[in-house]
Structure formats: structure tokens, C-alpha cells
Design goal:
Number of helices: 12
Distance between the termini: 18 Å
Radius of gyration: 24 Å
CATH topology of the largest domain: Aminopeptidase
Keywords: Hydrolase, Metal-binding, Zinc
Cofactor: Zn(2+)
Number of domains: 2
Protein name: M20 family metallopeptidase
Helix content: 25-40%
Largest sheet: 6 strands, mixed
Shape: elongated
Mean pLDDT: 95
CATH superfamily of the largest domain: Zn peptidases
CATH architecture of the largest domain: 3-Layer(aba) Sandwich
Length: about 400
Amino acid sequence: MTAPARQRHGSAALLTLARTRRDAFLRDLAELVGIDSGSYSPRGVNKVAGWTGRRLKRLGFSVERIRPAVSGGRQFGDILVARRRGSLTEAEGGARILLAAHMDTVFEDGTAAQRPFEVAGRLAHGPGVSDDKGGLLAGLTALEILDEAGIDEYAELTLLATPDEEIGSPVSRPHTEAVARGVDFAFALECARENGDVVTARKGVADFRLTVTGRAAHAGIEPERGANAALTAAHLVVRLQELNGRWEGVTINVGVVRAGTRSNIVCSEAQLAVEVRAASGTAIAAVRAAIEEAAARPCVDGTTVAVEQLDMCPPMEETPASGRLYEQARRIGADLGIELGRCSTGGVGDANLISGAGVPVLDGLGPVGGADHSPLEWLDIHTVPERTALLASMVATLGDRRGH
């Protein structure tokens, strides 16, 4: 009987394979960072998708490119979904594992030429080097290591690469949720935090629009006949901002206020754009109830307030299953010489959507990086072999559930 992959190829062996790829990793990273692939640059995103797809096809993955629908009058880059069947069926104990990364950056076309890839000491710099081209490449490298080691004891591996994560995944969200359904485990390839922590929880985000309706009147001749929507809106801003601190870890921000058309007209309509971030769906529901309560009691007679929830990105909540994923990663990390901590963050990503589909997910499985979305963005190249081996070891260990 053939020994399980986790016995034939330990973490140390995978680390040795990862170290042999360090120079190739840097060459590939320079090529990826040299491609402008902002969220609104479909040509650049598709260039990254083509580059990624060719690598995956060489590993025996079937690669699908999905052209998303136009959203808001804009065309976005393709969604890439690559799959490879393993040697185990699910009935035999094989797991379905998802690796998720994104191909878009926050930078405009021309940034790659203005700030080309460079290595200074142990740090690599360039647009998207950490968020998320370093993570995407770490995922591809881990898959190559597994292939070279002959590790295929899993039911299916899927790599998902999205074109619009940096703007909230407006076109890829339904595809991400569909891919995630039925998956046993998921690893999101955002880079590790600056201190090396992986991410076990992310806040969810809900966006609300409050529309205040009043009554117009001449502000100089008969202001008493009006009902000032702007005044109601102003009081609502104060009430909503005062909700901060009521629930631990919950933030409420009135980010946009619009009211009125002319100074000599009593304002008849106003709008507030409100963002809520919280670590649990229960907390977001509690904030919505508080917003609706405030809206039901406008301070100006004759005004009314309508509340709409425009969008909801579910929180990535830490669960017992995701906690076990972290503990497995921590044990493997110790074998590799990594003291692996964990953290939660207020930022959202595709891991939120995967978690919302009911899948245990661990985020921050890329190399260590930082200063994302800024000209100082960096990736610690010395962490690449260990973090790549960690990811490969997680797949090798969890892909075969016999004996777990």
C-alpha cells in the first residue's frame, strides 16, 4: 500500500523544493509586477490571466476564462477558474481545496513603468508586489512544488483568480460564491501581515443609503411652510456617528452627505451614505435595527426617512473549523521554523465571500508583505520559500483525510 503524501513528503522536503525556486520566483514576480493590471484595466488583468493560465495548463489543470458582464458601463477583466482532479475520490477521503487570489491592483496604467520592480536587500518593491501578485505567484509555486513531489492525494484542487477584488468584487462575487460551494477548505493568498500573522477573521461590510424627504418652500417668504430635510439629515449624522462604541469592534461611518439645490429653498431632499463594519452578521443586523430606529424618529416635523441596504459583504467569522485550519498551519509552520500568529482585520476580501458560502478559510497564506496600496509597497523575499512550503504542506496534509 502506498504511504500517504504527508508521510512520503514532509514539510522539510517541500521546503527544499521551494528554495530551489527562489530565483525563478523573483524573475516571475518581476514580470507580473511589470504588467499594469488595475481593476479598471481589463487588458492588463487579462494579460495576467493569460500568464497564469499557461502555468496552470502545464501542471495539468483545466483552465476556464469567464468574461464577466459589463457593470456600471465598464468592462472588467476575465475571471480565471482552474481545476485539477486528484487521485482520491471524496468517498475515499479526498478533499476539495480552493486557492483564491486576485489579479487586479489599485494602481493606474503607467504605474509599472514609473515604479518598476526592484529588489533592495530582502525587500522587493513595485505596484502590486504584495497585494496580490506575490500571493498569486506563491499559490502557483506551491502547486508546482506539489506536482514535482508527486503529491496528488486529494479529490480536487481549484485555483480562482479574480479581476476586481480591489473594488469590492462587483462582477466576480457570484462566481466566487459558486466556486466555493461544496469546497472543503480554502486558502486565500493575500500576503501575510507585516509581522507574519495569517488572517483568521475579517469584518463584514454593509452599505446603507438613507433618503430624507421634506417639503420645499421659499426660504425668505414662507419658510414655515417647508420641512427641512437637510436639518433632519444633520441630526441623523450625529445620531448615527454616536452609535460608535455601542458594540465592541463595530464601526459606523457617515461618509457622504448630500442635501438641497439652492440656498433660498427649504431643502426637500437629502441623502446619507453610511458604511457599517462588524465582525459578525449578528452585529450588522443590530446596527441596521438601530439605524432604522433613528430613521423612524426624524427631528423635523413633516420629514420622513427611508433606509435601504445597498450591499452586504459577509464577515469572515472565525469558526471551530477555521480554528482547526489555523492550528494545522501553526503546527506545520513550527516544522518550517515559522512562529505563526493570527489576527483579525477590518479590511474585506474574497475570503469574506468564501467564508459566507460556509467554507472554512484561512487568509494571508502568501509571503510577508506590507504598505499595500502605496508607493512603498514591499514583499519580504526571504519569506517566500517558507511560506510557499507552508501552503504546499497544508494542501498535502488536508487533501488526504484518511487517518485524520
